[in-house]
Amino acid sequence: MNTIHTDVAIIGAGSAGLSAYRAAKAAGASAILIEGGAHGTTCARVGCMPSKLLIAAADAAHHATHTAAFGVHIDGAVRIDGREVMARVKGERDRFVGFVVAGVDAMPAADKLTGYAHFIDDNLLQVGEHTKVQAKSIVIATGSSAVMPAMYRALGERAIINDDVFAWNDLPRRVAVIGAGVIGLELGQALARLGVDVSVLGARGRVGPLTDPDVRAYAERVFSEAFRFEPRAQVQAAVREGDEVRVRYVSDAGETIEDTFDYVLVAAGRKPNVGGLGLSNTSLELDADGLPVYDPLTLQAGARPVFIAGDANGVLPLLHEAADEGRAAGLNAARYPDVAPLERRAPLGIAFTDPGIAMVGARHADLVPKSFVTGEVSFEDQGRSRVMLRNRGLMHVYADRENGRFVGAEWIGPDAEHIAHLLAWAFQMKLTIDDMLRMPFYHPVVEEGLRTALRDAAGKLA
Ligand SMILES: Cc1cc2nc3c(=O)[nH]c(=O)nc-3n(C[C@H](O)[C@H](O)[C@H](O)COP(=O)(O)OP(=O)(O)OC[C@H]3O[C@@H](n4cnc5c(N)ncnc54)[C@H](O)[C@@H]3O)c2cc1C
């Protein structure tokens, strides 16, 4: 077996691994990037990008069928061609993947290895059956995989995950989406808007990432009006019947419902890909889930020369966090043992539903009760939102009672992805509610709704 020596070995060529590789090389270290699966990253192949492409098609369909209230009538049927929808999703997706793959192709051949890696000890990896890599430090950037509960595994190819949706050549007729987190809601609403008969079945009352009870209840109402949405369904059985799946569940109202679907799309959470890494061969301390205990700022596992970045560490499974963590892990691996903490950006999460959902700063669930005031705005009477007939939404902004600082926000509403950036920048700059109210607001814009919420918070602080 061939043995290669390197300063830094990186397991996984996803967004975190690629960032780690570039950072290690820029720091002057030698580095080997190891990939066992397909190149192109989860984000571009089966995550962020194809899901947003599907949502874009869904939005086009929705707008085309919701013109009448403006006095604009489409006299004739709006036709959704599932094959064309999926052809665009896959065509554009392949273009994005192509850019990533071209970047990998341009890397020196000596810096890349193909095969699944596992640890033999803290500094030694085996890659496939062919190569050993002796590294001064190692970055684990192996990403995460969709969880498939046992009940659905027996359904064979009729139980699918997000990856499978983006392999479709045509849209199916009926889909049960299991899970009401961000992925379940985004894909569920998109498929519903594209004419698929969708039921989104959550289990624990989740509505995307929301933790504020009022905002969550509002969002639940909005989605329940748009498609069959049961955030507290108890699925009792899922049985294969030929090419279909019969699902029986008890709804929140206590009703037993039986329905038949072409597919069960399981979006019931993701778990870090650490199972096959042979971590028991290392001296790393592992937690109850088998994940290395690590410092969330240096990304270092204990005092060992091992770093863990991106979805693999199971904390913030978001693209920009994976890229930031990868960069920090790569740099620290190159400089080991001289490691430095990552300066985390403002927490920011977005679900690309319609209306959009966003979270900035502290989550409502993590705030100390009575330490903050809540400023509120409903978008139902918000000027510009009504003009555009997009006047659904409820926003809560949280301000520290002691010093008036903006500490977080959760909301559902129009243009959430853009307003979320304004708020994340304000959070990171440690602005107070008064500072924010001194900023310009144009008229008539959706941001005036944000101003109403900020004014409400300011009034409660006074
Ligand atoms: C449907 C969906 C939609 C999403 N939408 C968004 C969004 O809109 N915005 C956002 O910010 N985030 C989104 N995400 C999350 C985002 O895609 C991830 O946070 C990000 O891609 C994680 O990057 P990563 O580098 O940690 O993992 P990955 O990109 O998955 O890379 C891990 C790599 O490691 C390889 N690997 C695993 N084990 C081994 C091994 N033992 N040896 C060698 N190689 C190995 C894998 O093959 C893989 O290529 C979405 C995710 C999904 C699934």
Description of the molecule:
The chain has 462 residues and is α/β, with parallel strands linked by helices. It folds into three domains: 2-146 and 271-335, FAD/NAD(P)-binding domain (3-Layer(bba) Sandwich); 150-268, FAD/NAD(P)-binding domain, CATH 3.50.50; 348-461, Enolase-like, domain 1 (2-Layer Sandwich). It has 13 helices and 22 strands. The strands form five sheets. Strands 1, 2, 3, 4, 5, 6 and 17 form a seven-stranded mixed beta sheet that branches. A hairpin with a 2-residue loop joins strand 4 (117-121) and strand 5 (124-127). The longest helix has 24 residues, at 82-105. The chain is globular. The mean pLDDT is 97. Flavin-adenine dinucleotide (FAD) binds at residues 11-17, 34-37, 41-43, 47-48, 51, 116-117, 141-143, 162, 183, 273, 276-277, 310-312, 317-320, 322. Residues 11-17, 34-37, 41-43, 47-48, 51, 116-117, 141-143, 162, 183, 273, 276-277, 310-312, 317-320, 322 line the site of flavin-adenine dinucleotide.
Chain-wise SSE layout:
Layout: E1 2-11, H1 15-26, E2 31-35, H2 42-46, H3 48-64, H4 82-105, E3 112-114, E4 117-121, E5 124-127, E6 131-140, E7 144-146, H5 150-153, E8 159-160, H6 162-165, E9 174-178, H7 182-193, E10 197-201, H8 213-226, E11 228-230, E12 234-241, E13 244-250, E14 256-261, E15 263-266, E16 270-272, E17 306-308, H9 319-335, E18 348-351, E19 356-361, E20 372-378, H10 383-387, E21 394-400, E22 406-413, H11 416-428, H12 433-437, H13 447-461
Helix pairs in contact: 1-9, 3-4, 3-7
The protein binds flavin-adenine dinucleotide.
